[in-house]
Amino acid sequence: MSEDILYDHLRRGVTHTCHCWLIRRLDGTALGFTDHDASLQFDGIVFAPQSGLSARAIASTTGLSINNTEAFGVLSDDAITEADILAGRYDGATVQVWLVCWDDVAARKTLFRGSLGEITRGAGGFEAELHGLTEVLNQTQGRTYMKTCGAVLGDARCRFAVDQASYRLDYTLTTATDGQVFTLEGVENFNAGWFESGLLEVLTGAAAGLKDVIKSDVGEGDRVLTLWSPLNAVIVPGDVLRVTAGCDKTAATCREKFDNFLNYQGFPDMPGEDWMVSVPRSDETNAGGSLNR
Length: 293
Prior knowledge:
The chain is mainly beta.
């Protein structure tokens, strides 16, 4: 066992150990770093030295309390860049830290496993929160009792196939953009507002993999899509965008726009806040049904 080899080494009193870091982004990019003065390699990853990546002490506790720490690093062109941080490429990235015997990398032990949290940047560097695996215990689980749908369009609960031509468009950009407002020319096969609350994703170019929710979809034929926040990367004419129809989570949209009401994950007929004071009215049909208005 690799940990047993490491423990035997530590018992000697004179040790040859260092730390190795692995950051794996959601787009599959893996970056390895070490505080040793030479490169190390294991598990198919090369851990580069002199990266400027370091960390405060990792506090581990028993039970279900959350293990958090922080990492510090230097922005560099060949590793972690300011442009990638601003573009959100490190959002949700996973992190693993090992204590490694540098002259025998088979002797190692995982000290931390988790994900990157908030990243702040300063003069030539950055500081990132690291969240342990128990961080997920802070997330809300289960369904919420509300009128609107709790599923995400196209996920396992929604079950709607968003890759249909009527609901998804791959478009080669023909006009300049600031990363937040996009003009799509000659798009006439979709109703006005069809993509509002939908998703815009960049498939090619320097911004490939970046995406955000569409705030508004204005016009027909030539339409203007505005995102809630800009994509912080260079996007130029010729880049390919993928635009997916939006869903406002209401029962009417699910039934009329997507014909998917059987999979609706909300409670459209739940009583409103004033249901206790609802009474029959002489100008309404009172057929014994719900009095909720």
